[in-house]
Hints:
There is one protein chain. With 126 residues, the chain is α+β, with helices and mostly antiparallel strands. The chain has helices spanning 29-42, 68-85; strands at 9-11, 26-28, 89-100, 103-112, 118-124. The longest helix is centred in the middle third of the chain and has 18 residues, at 68-85. The radius of gyration is 15 Å and the shape is globular.
Amino acid sequence: MPEDSAAIRGVAFPFRVDPRTGGIAVSAGADKLRENVVRLLLTRIGERPMLREYGGGVTQLFQESVDEGMVAIARHQITRALLRFEPRVLPQEVGVVETEPGVLRLRVLYVDSTRPGLQSVVVPIG
């Protein structure tokens, strides 16, 4: 049984201090799930000593030339990471979009298992 997205709660990503309380900022629900997806995508594969295979490896693509081969590798790598490490997310489309000349972003459309409809996250890759 999937957990309710309102029950998802944790430290905000990126880490920050809540200006209202002076404490650590906390996120919940769909915002927290989106932050978890971004954190997973930006984590280098092998970066976490206790879980070497965790990560989407997007940061490793910064220096790569963008061609169909790189996009196919990124699509496979990211889809595999999402399916393995974020079971509340079912990726639908992974693609590279050019939002402005010379600026590439990775866009992931996914279904949040706790709420209807497509969600998206966009991560800069160069």
